[in-house]
Amino acid sequence: MNTKTKITIGFIGLSVLLCVFVSCLLFATACMFKSKTTAEIMYSRWGITIPDDMELLYHNSTIGWPSDGEECHVYKLKKEPTEFLEDFTTGRNEKAEEDINRIIESFKSAKQEIPATYLIDFESEYRWKFVGKNEHDGRFADYIYILYFPNLLQLSFFEYLM
Question: Taking the alpha carbons of 113, 116, 122, 128 in that order, is the dihedral positive or negative?
Fold first, then answer.
């Protein structure tokens, strides 16, 4: 085999390896940015399995890179999710109301104001659940509040990710 043939074979081999590498990189990127359902997101972020018989009424997010910001989901349920609500607390929670109002204000400052129809009426009866992660000095860097309004059959999710 002469030198020209060896160079040609080497060039072809290198081209094939480069194509395989670029293909793998593109596939990994596509998998990473694949759109996930709310159920998949809630489970991967918080370990929460949400009811599957819900209709999305509203969604808004300021979450960017590197996955920090706020997110709001509002769902209408077909019936009360009794099993899902087992570990929810009944009654007002001033800390939850303060944190949720802070998230709502953050949407306003990002010019993504939540429509009045989906704003929380804390005077209504509600049940709530808090899940926090990454605790430092008694505060959670990441958290979610889930509020259930039985009179509306509505679930509202308010996430804060730092």
Answer: negative
Task: Name 135's bridge partners.
Answer: 140
pTM: 0.73
Q: What CA–CA distances, in Å, run from 133 to 50, 86, 138, 159?
A: 18, 21, 11, 11
Which pLDDT tens digit goes with each residue over 6-28?
A: 677 656 755 655 545 545 344 44
Indicate the pLDDT class of residue 152, thresholds 50, 70 and 90: very high
Name the token pair of 131: 């899940």
Closest CA to 100 of 79, 136, 138, 74: 74
Residues 93 and 100 sit within 8 Å (Cβ to Cβ): no
Question: Closest Cα to residue 129, out of 47, 39, 41?
Answer: 47
